[in-house]
Each structure stands twice: as structure tokens, then as C-alpha cells.
TrEMBL record:
<dbReference type="InterPro" id="IPR025887">
    <property type="entry name" value="Glyco_hydro_31_N_dom"/>
</dbReference>
<dbReference type="InterPro" id="IPR030458">
    <property type="entry name" value="Glyco_hydro_31_AS"/>
</dbReference>
<dbReference type="InterPro" id="IPR017853">
    <property type="entry name" value="GH"/>
</dbReference>
<dbReference type="InterPro" id="IPR000322">
    <property type="entry name" value="Glyco_hydro_31_TIM"/>
</dbReference>
<dbReference type="Pfam" id="PF13802">
    <property type="entry name" value="Gal_mutarotas_2"/>
</dbReference>
<dbReference type="Pfam" id="PF17137">
    <property type="entry name" value="DUF5110"/>
</dbReference>
<comment type="similarity">
    <text>Belongs to the glycosyl hydrolase 31 family.</text>
</comment>
<dbReference type="GO" id="GO:0005975">
    <property type="term" value="P:carbohydrate metabolic process"/>
</dbReference>
<protein>
    <submittedName>
        <fullName>DUF4968 domain-containing protein</fullName>
    </submittedName>
</protein>
<dbReference type="InterPro" id="IPR033403">
    <property type="entry name" value="DUF5110"/>
</dbReference>
<dbReference type="Pfam" id="PF01055">
    <property type="entry name" value="Glyco_hydro_31_2nd"/>
</dbReference>
<keyword id="KW-0378">Hydrolase</keyword>
<dbReference type="GO" id="GO:0030246">
    <property type="term" value="F:carbohydrate binding"/>
</dbReference>
<dbReference type="InterPro" id="IPR013780">
    <property type="entry name" value="Glyco_hydro_b"/>
</dbReference>
<dbReference type="Pfam" id="PF21365">
    <property type="entry name" value="Glyco_hydro_31_3rd"/>
</dbReference>
<feature type="domain" description="Glycoside hydrolase family 31 TIM barrel">
    <location>
        <begin position="251"/>
        <end position="579"/>
    </location>
</feature>
<feature type="domain" description="Glycosyl hydrolase family 31 C-terminal">
    <location>
        <begin position="587"/>
        <end position="673"/>
    </location>
</feature>
Length: 799
């Protein structure tokens, strides 16, 4: 019997007084008399890492989330000591660590508090597993708002919410349901019109409480591991998101076709069925670039095999689809069927690549093929082996993309839907249990898949999509929001999730258009398409158990609406590609919630529905049936109604009437929006003109257009075209100045200018100081102004 009451103590423990500190270049170590160490590392003037240990020493410093290829640096660092605290000062913030209890407070240079500890760091011994439950609580002031945390199915503003991060196969999840498929332990705080960010890089099951339990306290904790978090100061939300995205990494450019429209179903088979779908898209002239094959293309659901009854000659089929512009994307799951005649299983068994239970045997679980073992993707050798398995699919058969599913990891017929927590993982040489590796399993699978697809698709770019992800997964893969439902509530959820994912570094995300489970009405499908074409990843996907969900499964009106909006997406491909370029170059999110767009306008802090697509297009979906319009908030500034060209002043909520074949779309005054002609697939047409929709604004507005050959890696060698337009509107004049960077020369030779909102009648035009007679010679049949693309300054002068 235990009689030592110290061993029976249960409760929270805290750092005691600091007894020493030392500085090593960019890191400052603080030691307490109860063996707690705080390591503060200055990565940038506005990016500070806080790492705590209660053991008197730190374990190996390793993270899957951090982009190690990127270097950091600061401009100024000064460490000083006062009577009650130590102070660390950079050119952006000052951080104070209290001597008596190690609590942290962070101020701007004007002594305004940005963030301060409430209880600060504390911990609780985990008697079930050993180790610690690590905790952090911060003081929260009235009026503070919180955003981010990945694809949570709840309000944009997380104030008052308690959320859980544990990657979970959550089929047909509901609004506010926790947890979901992805884990992004990063949030943005906004108070007094200033933003900061916290990234809690801990892969154990984590929790966040945004003033839910206690009104003025925000806290986060994990069931193991370290209290290891990064503080990011804005003060603009744009700066916070960009810094976080830079910290966790950015993707490479996808091939342009990956930004087209995709069609998927569980499942298209046999080959004749897939060919019918392809032919129907072309017959109805609804653009489509990719068709997906779900698990039924495999032989008995064995990964890297083909069902020869359904698909007797996959190489021929994939080539024939490609001739008509369709790229084939196939699903690959982590469960490897236990079958001694199955070569993938045999090889993994021989090389000891499967995950094991704590007492030695391979972890076994049921998924689609039946009983399976599961590769340990946290082992570099396993990732290398897995990458090599894609040779036949990609380089021989010609598949263009791979879709990773069930990688939370999901396991059927068990209460917790996943691996037992005692499963062991290599964790890149840092052995651990599944408690630590669970949340990053899907990302490491996607990483291995990415390297395989990239290796065998070269010199083309890879395309990978994943269901489960941890922070940093955006370096390898796109994603979708999982098994949603064909309901109006889920249309609302999809809108929120993709905005939030964009804020959380994972911009290349979309939802299953129309809903995966159950069957949408034609009206719901049409409204979902109208939203989905403004998501970076655009795919209809459904469960075959609930009926057909191709556009032609509905009536003629829905077919026409689908065509209209998919056509619009294909016209906007250069705008969308430019958004992606800015995302990978500067970490700028492709979708911008209104609070990101204008955090100083308090009316944006609780908006859910409206978002800015790129930098200059405002979108607000219709989220209720039988709508003839809706109220929406227009951000500050002037905006043109896309459908009517009516100019409205922002900074207020207005009623916008719409038809069934429209949703509210507005374009920022002064914007120049690039458009391609409608194509049935990327690369179908050669064209000699780039259309530029020019929205007049009295004042200055900058617009940019990025282009390259739409695939391959020449863009990394400078073979791209980056156009910077500046439109300056005056009372009787519009000046368009153009600057070009990059060595790529586009195939088209002319710009087709669509002048919108001009307040004057055009009298003369000057191109690079040469006057051009403004008559039918300079106009095409539609009244658009045609100019050669090589100009640097265009003056449109009114009477």
C-alpha cells in the first residue's frame, strides 16, 4: 500500500521561481528551482517560440509541421533584467518573463499588452500513460475574437467555443461536431484591432477553449508531449497568416488543370460507365478536367491493383480519356490487405514496414479489403518504399493524380474508429506510440504519396489530395473536407470550412459539391456548384448508395446553371492561378474572410458567409432554399455588382436580389480581372487574346496576373510572366500602366479590354505616348477595345 502522500498527489503543477538564465545567440533559457526550463527562441522580430520542459532537460527537437527548408532571422534582439522580470525585446515586440512564476506577457513597443498568461504554463501528471498533460491558459479581454483552427464545422469566430483536435473519420458529421478529419492547432486572436497568432505544435490529442469554461480565459492543452508554441505578432491578420504559412510551409504550383472542375463518385465502374460520364460532359459542354476512380477500380480493394473485369486495359483507357482532355485520378488507402499472394503485402512484410502493437505483433484492423496491416509512414524507409509503388500507376499507366482517403487512420468495427493507442511508430527516429503519431499519420502518408507521384510524373507537376492532415500538410497535398451530407446546413458548413482552412495555411481545399451522403435536390446542387466554383479545389463527389449526382442527374435548369458557373470558373482560371501564385510566394490566403480583409471594421468580426476570392472578387453564396436574394455585408470601399455592373458603396449591409442562376458577386472598383475563353478542359484551345475586365475607379488600384506554361518546372527558372497593372481613374481619364516580369512570353498577342463603369465618353486613346484614333478599327464586334500586349502605358481620354 502506498503511504507516501506525495506519490498520491493529483492536480496541476506550476513552475516556481526562476533561479538562472543564459543566452545562446537567438535562444534564451530560463531555469526554475523545480527543474522547469523555458527556452525562448527569437525566429523573427514578430515570431517567437516558447518551449517548456518539466524534466530539467529537453527531448530531441523534432517537428513534422515546421518547414525546415526556410531560414529565419531577426533585426534586433536585446535581453535585459528588471527587478521582477526578464525582458526580451525585438524591433516589433517586447516579452517579459516574471521571475516569481515564469508567467509570460507580450507587449508592443508602445507598451500595449498583446497577450499575457493567466495561469500560464502548468501541467498534470498522466497516471494512465505516464508523462504529462501539458496546459496553457491566457488572459482574454472583453471584445477579443478568435479565428482559424482548420476545418471546424462551426462559426467563423470561435469565441465561446471549446474544440478538440484528433483526426477522426467522422462520416456525415454535423454542425459543431468535434473532432473532424484535420488537425491544425493554430489560431488567430484579434483585440483592439490588432492581431496575433498562436501555433501549438503538439501532435497529441489537443484541446482549445476560447472563453467557454471561463469568460476571460483562453486555454489550450495536450494529452502528452511538450508545451511548445509559437507566438506570431501582426498587428494585421494578413501578417499573422503569412508568417504562419511561411513557418509551416507552402506548396509548389499545381498544374493548371488541377484548378479546373473535377467529377468523382463512389464509384465509377466498369470502364463503360466512366466513358459514358466523360462523353456526357463533352456532349453537354460542361467543362471538366479530371475524373476519379474510387476503391472499386481495384482488385478486391487491394491498393496498386486493377480489377481486370471492370478495367481490362487501364493504360489504354487512361490514354483514351486523356485524348479527350480528361486526367484520371485514383484513390489509394493506407490499409494493405493481409494476403500472401499480394505483392505489396509480401514486400512490406519482408521489410518489416507495418505498424506494430506494443507487445510485438503487427497492428491488424478491418477496412475495405477486410483484415489489413498498415504501413508506418513515420519511417523514412517506408515512405521511400511507398513512393516507389507509384511507378506503374503514374509513369506506365498514365494516372495524373492520387487521392489518399481513410488516412486518419480510419479502422472499421472498433469503438474509437482508429488504431489502438499502444501502436508503435518510428517517428523519423523518435520512437513513440500512436498517441503522438495519430494526428500526423495522414500527412506522412500524403507526403510519401506526393514524393512518389512527383518522381514518376516528372517533368510534370504532381497532384495529390488527402482527407486527413496536420499543420504543414499543405507542402505536399491538397485536401477536401470529408464525408459531408446533402443538406442546406452542410452547404453553410462547407463555406465556413474552406474559408477557415484558407486562414489556417491549407488553401488548396474544397468540399464534396452537393454532399457526399444522401441526395441533394436540384436547387441545393445548383447552389453548391455556385459556391464550389469559388473554392480552390472544385470537385463534385457523392456516395453511389444515394443516387446519381452528375449535373445531368437534375433538370435542364440545373444543367444550365452548372454550365454557366463552371464556365465562369474556367474564364477566371488566370485569376485563380494568380491567387495560387501569391499563396505559394507570399503565403497570402486564396480565400479571405471579411475579418481578414478588413479587421478594423468591427462589422466583419462575426460575418460567416461573405468572403473575398483572391484580392478583388467578393462572393456571398445563397444558403437557403427558395431565395430570391439575401442580405449581405459589403466591405468598405466601392464594389461593382458582377451581374448588373451597378456600383455600390461598402461598409454596410444591403439586400441583394438574385435569380436562381445567380449568387451575389461583386468586383472591387479599380480591379482588372483577367479571363480566358471558355474551354472544355485546360489546354483545349489556343487563343490570341486575354480578356481584361477593367472596372473604373476614381483613384488607384493595382492588379496582377501570373502565367506560365501551366505545368512543369520552368517557372522556377524564371520562365513565367508576372504582369502588374495599375489603373488610375480621373474625372475624364483612365490610365493603365503595365509592368512585366519574367522570361515567359504568352501565346496570345493582344489584350481585349472590357471597360466597365466609365463615367465619360471616350474621345481619344494614347498607347505609349502615341495617339490612336478611337473608332471601329480599335474595337471588335462586341465593342471591346483591342490592344497589343506589349504596351506600358495606355491613356483613355474622355470628352
Amino acid at each position: 500500500m502506498i503511504t507516501n502522500t506525495e506519490l498520491e498527489y493529483k492536480g496541476d503543477l506550476y513552475p516556481t521561481k526562476i533561479i538562472s538564465f543564459e543566452q545562446e545567440v537567438d535562444s534564451i533559457y530560463f531555469h526554475t528551482d523545480n527543474s522547469v526550463i523555458l527556452k525562448v527562441t527569437i525566429l523573427r522580430d514578430s515570431l517567437i517560440r516558447f518551449r517548456f520542459t518539466t524534466k530539467g532537460y529537453f527531448s530531441n527537437d523534432f517537428s513534422y509541421a515546421i518547414d525546415k527548408s526556410h531560414s529565419h532571422g531577426y533585426n534586433f534582439l536585446e535581453v535585459s533584467e528588471a527587478e521582477e522580470y526578464y525582458q526580451i525585446k525585438t524591433s516589433k515586440v517586447q516579452c517579459r518573463i516574471q521571475k516569481i512564476d515564469m508567467r509570460v506577457s507580450i507587449y508592443d513597443l508602445e507598451e500595449n499588452i498583446i497577450l499575457e498568461d493567466e495561469l500560464g504554463f502548468h501541467w498534470e501528471e498522466s497516471y494512465e500513460y505516464g508523462g504529462n498533460i501539458v496546459k496553457m491558459s491566457k488572459a482574454s479581454k472583453d471584445g477579443e475574437c478568435f479565428y482559424g483552427l482548420g476545418d471546424k464545422a462551426t462559426q467563423m469566430n470561435l469565441k465561446g467555443k471549446r474544440l478538440e483536435n484528433f483526426a477522426t473519420d467522422q462520416y456525415a458529421f454535423q454542425k459543431d461536431q468535434e473532432p473532424l478529419y484535420k488537425v491544425v492547432p493554430f489560431y488567430i486572436g484579434l483585440r483592439n484591432k490588432k492581431s496575433y497568432g498562436i501555433f501549438f505544435d503538439n501532435t497529441f490529442r489537443t484541446y482549445f477553449d476560447f472563453c467557454h469554461e471561463r469568460r476571460n480565459v483562453t486555454s489550450y492543452w495536450a494529452e502528452g508531449g511538450e508545451m511548445n508554441y509559437y507566438f506570431i505578432y501582426g498587428p494585421q491578420m494578413q501578417d499573422v497568416v503569412t508568417t504562419y504559412t511561411d513557418l509551416t510551409g507552402k506548396p509548389e504550383l499545381p498544374p493548371l488543370w488541377a484548378l479546373g472542375y473535377h467529377q468523382c463518385k463512389w464509384s465509377y465502374y466498369p470502364e463503360s460507365n466512366l466513358k459514358e460520364v466523360a462523353a456526357k460532359f463533352r456532349e453537354l459542354k460542361i467543362p471538366c478536367d479530371a475524373l476519379y476512380l474510387d476503391i472499386d477500380y481495384m482488385e478486391g480493394f487491394r491498393c496498386f491493383t486493377w480489377n481486370k473485369e471492370y478495367f481490362p486495359d487501364p493504360k489504354r483507357m487512361v490514354a483514351e480519356l486523356a485524348e479527350d482532355g480528361f486526367k484520371t485520378v485514383v484513390i489509394i488507402d493506407p490499409g494493405i490487405k493481409i494476403d500472401k499472394e499480394y505483392s505489396v503485402y509480401q514486400e512490406a512484410l519482408e521489410k518489416d514496414y507495418f505498424c506494430k502493437r506494443a507487445d510485438g505483433p503487427y497492428m491488424k484492423g478491418k477496412v475495405w479489403p477486410g483484415e489489413c496491416n498498415f504501413p508506418d509512414y513515420t519511417n523514412p524507409a517506408v515512405r521511400e518504399w511507398w513512393a516507389g509503388l507509384f511507378k506503374e500507376l503514374i509513369s506506365e499507366i498514365g494516372v495524373k493524380g492520387v487521392w489518399n482517403d481513410m488516412n486518419e487512420p480510419a479502422v472499421m468495427e472498433v469503438p474509437n474508429k482508429t488504431f489502438p493507442m499502444d501502436v508503435r511508430h518510428d517517428y523519423d527516429g523518435n520512437p513513440c506510440s500512436h498517441r503522438k503519431a495519430h494526428n500526423i499519420y495522414g500527412t506522412q502518408m500524403a507526403r510519401a504519396t506526393y514524393h512518389g507521384v512527383k518522381r514518376f510524373a516528372y517533368p510534370k507537376r504532381p497532384f495529390v489530395i488527402t482527407r486527413s492532415a496536420y499543420a504543414g500538410a499543405q507542402r505536399y497535398t491538397s485536401s477536401w473536407t470529408g464525408d459531408n451530407v446533402a443538406t442546406w446546413e452542410h452547404l453553410w458548413i462547407a463555406n465556413i470550412q474552406v474559408q477557415r482552412m484558407s486562414l489556417s495555411g491549407m488553401g488548396f481545399t474544397g468540399s464534396d459539391i452537393g454532399g457526399f451522403a444522401e441526395q441533394p435536390s436540384g436547387e441545393l446542387y445548383a447552389r453548391w456548384i455556385q459556391l464550389g466554383v469559388f473554392h480552390p479545389f472544385c470537385r463534385t463527389h457523392s456516395s453511389g448508395d444515394h443516387g446519381d449526382q452528375e449535373p445531368w442527374a437534375f433538370d435542364e435548369e440545373v444543367i444550365n446553371i452548372t454550365r454557366k458557373f463552371v464556365n465562369l470558373r474556367y474564364q477566371l482560371l488566370p485569376y485563380l492561378y494568380t491567387m495560387f501564385w501569391q499563396y505559394i510566394e507570399e503565403g497570402i490566403p486564396m480565400l479571405k474572410p471579411l475579418v481578414y480583409y478588413d479587421q478594423e471594421d468591427i462589422q466583419t468580426h462575426y460575418r460567416n458567409d461573405e468572403f473575398v476570392f483572391g484580392n478583388q472578387i467578393l462572393v456571398c453564396p445563397i444558403l437557403e432554399p427558395n431565395s430570391v436574394g439575401r442580405r449581405m455585408y459589403i466591405p468598405r470601399g466601392q464594389w461593382y455588382n458582377y451581374w448588373t455592373n451597378e456600383l455600390v458603396n461598402g461598409g454596410k449591409e444591403i439586400w441583394v436580389g438574385t435569380k436562381f442562376d445567380e449568387i451575389p458577386i461583386f468586383v472591387k472598383a479599380g480591379a482588372i480581372i483577367p479571363k480566358y475563353p471558355v474551354q472544355q478542359y485546360v489546354g483545349e484551345l489556343e487563343f490570341d487574346e486575354l480578356t481584361l475586365d477593367i472596372y473604373y475607379h476614381e483613384g488607384k488600384e493595382k492588379s496582377v496576373v501570373y502565367e506560365d506554361v501551366q505545368d512543369g518546372y520552368d517557372y522556377k527558372k524564371g520562365r513565367y510572366s508576372f504582369l502588374s497593372f495599375q489603373a488610375t481613374g480621373k474625372e475624364k481619364e483612365l490610365i493603365i500602366q503595365l509592368h512585366k516580369e519574367g522570361k515567359y512570353d504568352t501565346n496570345y498577342s493582344k489584350y481585349k479590354l472590357n471597360l466597365i463603369g466609365l463615367p465619360f465618353k471616350v474621345k481619344t486613346i494614347e498607347i505609349d505616348n502615341v495617339e490612336v484614333v478611337f473608332d471601329k478599327i480599335t474595337l471588335d464586334n462586341e465593342g471591346y477595345l483591342i490592344v497589343d500586349k506589349g504596351f506600358t502605358a495606355l491613356y483613355i481620354i474622355g470628352e
